[in-house]
Amino acid sequence: MSDTHIDVCEGGHSPEERRAFAEILSRIGDKWTVLVVGVLAHGPMRYSQIFKLVGGVSQRMLTLTLKSLERDGIIRRTVYPTNPPRVDYELTERGKTLIVPLHLLWTWAQTNRAAIEGTRRDFDHQRSKDGAAA
Amino acid sequence: MSDTHIDVCEGGHSPEERRAFAEILSRIGDKWTVLVVGVLAHGPMRYSQIFKLVGGVSQRMLTLTLKSLERDGIIRRTVYPTNPPRVDYELTERGKTLIVPLHLLWTWAQTNRAAIEGTRRDFDHQRSKDGAAA
DNA sequence: CAGCATCCCATGAGATACTG
DNA sequence: CAGTATCTCATGGGATGCTG
Hints:
2 copies of one chain form a homodimer. By secondary structure, chain A is mainly alpha-helical. The first copy, chain A, has a domain at 15-97: Arc Repressor Mutant, subunit A, CATH 1.10.10.10. Chain A has helices spanning 15-28, 31-40, 47-54, 59-71, 93-96, 99-132, and strands spanning 45-46, 75-80, 86-91. In chain A, strands 1-3-2 form a 3-stranded antiparallel beta sheet. Chain A is extended, with a radius of gyration of 20 Å. The relative contact order of chain A is 0.09. The mean pLDDT of chain A is 88. Chain A binds a DNA duplex through residues 46-48, 51, 58-64, 79, 82-87. Chains A, B: InterPro entries: HTH_HxlR (IPR002577), WH-like_DNA-bd_sf (IPR036388), WH_DNA-bd_sf (IPR036390). Chains A, B: GO terms for molecular function: DNA binding. Chains A, B: Residues 9-117 form the HTH hxlR-type domain. Chains A, B: This is Transcriptional regulator, HxlR family. Chains A, B: Pfam families: HxlR.
């Protein structure tokens, strides 16, 4: 009971900053984004390779995700004007700094996944009982 | 140049696990979710208080977000059957363990926000030049 | 006060087909 | 190979109004 006053964002949290934080987090917390950053953490990779490794992503979403990450300076896109063309993607220095925080979240998710799924089941079961009764 | 082989998720990453990770991350990386967890990190709080502090959220989204967090066991909902009713929300122990990873991300966002916005401008400017040119 | 239900529009996101 | 373009359907999410 002595520590509920920790803050996620102590440094100063004007509404503007909080929204900016949420916006950035939403972007990097996006499903495809984290998977792409995850596979690129292994090193530079070509479009088709990312496409296969991520698995289940559509070309459209992969392209959009890559472009958005490039726009934010998280990844770098390098074109080799050979024929057929070859395009490499790799994390920038900025992108690499994302690995540690993301890794922490991954650890959290690993640690809590089973428990969360259990809690969900309980919750849903409880609600269906509530609904059924009355 | 000696360390591009770090992995976001070393512990084992079957497709199934990677997807589960992305799913959890997407949920907790959601815009309203992080803001709600952020304000609840200050301590227990009533619905209306969260509503005001988060700012800009609709009742609908707040209710949905809170329910989803409760379902995942991140927050606890306590009803005091007074009149008018009073409902408190607070982070569970599990929820509190989220504060540290989230805080790290917040730090990352703070550190990189300005640079990212600059990069975005450059990128957009570059693209508009490309588009304008032949 | 704390929410649920409904309407309605904007965006997200898959599938498919075409191109440099 | 590495995309772009379009079509389409599902979901997200705001606004409003009602209820215990």
